[in-house]
TrEMBL record:
This is Arginine biosynthesis bifunctional protein ArgJ. GO terms for cellular component: cytoplasm. The active site is at T197. InterPro entries: Arg_biosynth_ArgJ, ArgJ-like_dom_sf, ArgJ_beta_C. GO terms for molecular function: L-glutamate N-acetyltransferase activity; L-glutamate N-acetyltransferase activity, acting on acetyl-L-ornithine as donor. It comes from the Bacteria. The record marks A196, T197 as: Cleavage. GO terms for biological process: L-arginine biosynthetic process; ornithine biosynthetic process. SUPFAM superfamilies: DmpA/ArgJ-like. The gene is argJ. Pathway: Amino-acid biosynthesis; L-arginine biosynthesis; N(2)-acetyl-L-ornithine from L-glutamate: step 1/4; Amino-acid biosynthesis; L-arginine biosynthesis; L-ornithine and N-acetyl-L-glutamate from L-glutamate and N(2)-acetyl-L-ornithine (cyclic): step 1/1.
Length: 410
């Protein structure tokens, strides 16, 4: 008999995802002139002030938009709109950068006829260059006043070196009401745990208070966005931002709500899907690498080991070359946690056991190589030291990564 998964039990994945699918939201994206030809300015707006929550990069050089968005959300933990530009990060731009980000926020608020503190801003692109504010201002007027919004254009407008738009929408029933959660993200390079060059925007029409939403986002980020890596670089502009309109008309969600688990699982699915899409779209990548650590003594230890393995350049290049060089995986785990007991370690590459009790297992090299040629390469590292487990995601390291980043500005 087939076992029902949590996804099948709790929610449905929409075939046509859209950041504007939840009630009360709309979105649009245009070309404003920051980039040569591609769309570079986007807007998400809500009919009502929405509960808002966010997590931000831990980089000491937080970009100006991060600080302005923190300022906005800090007023009453609500937002009604978010303006995003790509092609220019507005990072390391000093006082002028802060003023430009504030002008970007205030101009959007004026055009939307809402209070400035209800607008968040985000930027992504080249660091150390001032925003072309004339293009931003004229672009915002065009963006807001267009007769018909196009949500798919928003997902396109936030991209930089990405090769595809990243979107997901799920539907679930809470209190007999249909609740939707949608997300879209950008991210391809400068991706490393504890945020990265990634922007992710999530909307939902669920009724949920800002403090509960913030707590859920913190916890979910630790298991999703903070468990991905492409190249080990943590950027200046990274942010995950959530808005909840409350227009689904469910009873306010909280930990005590009888259907809280449904929402939590669906929300985590949205975040995990976006996170793995970012890892798969790593600059020049040809494989998604998934590392599952089981039997760890603590969740923290499991996370540290999984991140180390998925971030290892030697593991990445072995995957690219379809070389089952398991010593690189074991090595990364060992320096991540020197207290490991080697004689307890088992390692699987897909279904193939390649290490048993710390030494090479008997396996078919051709079968292992076949697994390494799949689009998704899975490592399962069993520590046999406890009951905790976690998952991390990354990608292989190819010649194209060097090519893309060697000429990023030119």
């Amino acid at each position: 008999m087939k076992t029902e998964t949590l996804q099948e039990k709790f929610f449905r994945v929409a075939r046509n995802p859209s950041i504007a699918a939840p009630k009360g939201f709309d979105a649009n994206g245009i070309h404003s002139g920051i980039k040569g030809k591609k769309k570079d300015l986007g807007l998400i707006r809500c009919e009502v002030p929405a509960s808002a929550a966010a997590v931000y990069t831990v980089n000491a050089f937080q970009a100006a938009p991060i600080k302005i968005t923190q300022e906005s959300i800090g007023m009453e933990n609500r937002l009604q709109a978010v303006v995003v530009n790509s092609g220019n990060a507005n990072a390391c731009t000093g006082k002028r950068g802060l003023e430009d980000a504030r002008q970007m926020r205030d101009k959007a608020a004026s055009l939307l006829n809402i209070s400035p503190h209800l607008v968040g801003v985000a930027s992504t692109g080249v660091i150390g260059v001032y925003l072309p504010m004339d293009k931003i201002h004229s672009g915002l007027e065009k963006l807001v006043r267009v007769q018909e919004y196009d949500p798919a254009s928003f997902a396109e407008a936030i991209l930089t070196t990405d090769t595809f738009a990243k979107q997901v929408t799920v539907e679930l029933n809470i209190d007999g009401k249909t609740v939707k959660i949608s997300g879209t993200a950008k991210g391809s390079g400068m991706i490393h745990p504890n945020m990265a060059t990634m922007l992710s925007f999530i909307t939902t029409d669920a009724s949920i208070k800002p403090d509960i939403l913030q707590s859920l986002l913190w916890k979910t980020t630790d298991d999703t966005f903070n468990m991905i890596t492409v190249d080990g670089d943590t950027s200046t502009n990274d942010m995950v931002l959530v808005m909840a309109s409350g227009l689904a008309d469910n009873q306010p969600l909280a930990y005590s709500h009888p259907e809280w688990e449904k929402f939590q699982v669906a929300f985590q699915y949205v975040c995990r899907t976006l996170a793995t899409m970012i890892a798969r779209d790593g600059e020049g990548a040809s494989h998604l690498v998934q590392v599952k650590v089981e039997g760890a003594r603590s969740k923290e230890a499991a996370r540290k080991i999984a991140k180390a393995v998925v971030a290892s350049n030697l593991v990445k290049t072995a995957v690219y070359g379809a070389d089952a060089n398991w010593g690189r995986v074991i090595c990364a785990a060992g320096y991540a946690d020197p207290t490991l007991t080697p004689e307890k370690i088992d390692l699987y590459l897909g279904p193939v056991q390649i290490v048993k009790k710390g030494t090479a297992a008997s396996y078919d090299e051709r079968e292992a190589s076949e697994v390494l040629n799949r689009e998704v390469v899975e490592f399962r590292l069993i520590l046999n030291s406890g009951n905790c487990e976690t998952m991390a995601w990354g990608c292989d390291l190819t010649y194209d990564y060097v090519r893309i980043n060697a000429s990023y500005r030119t």
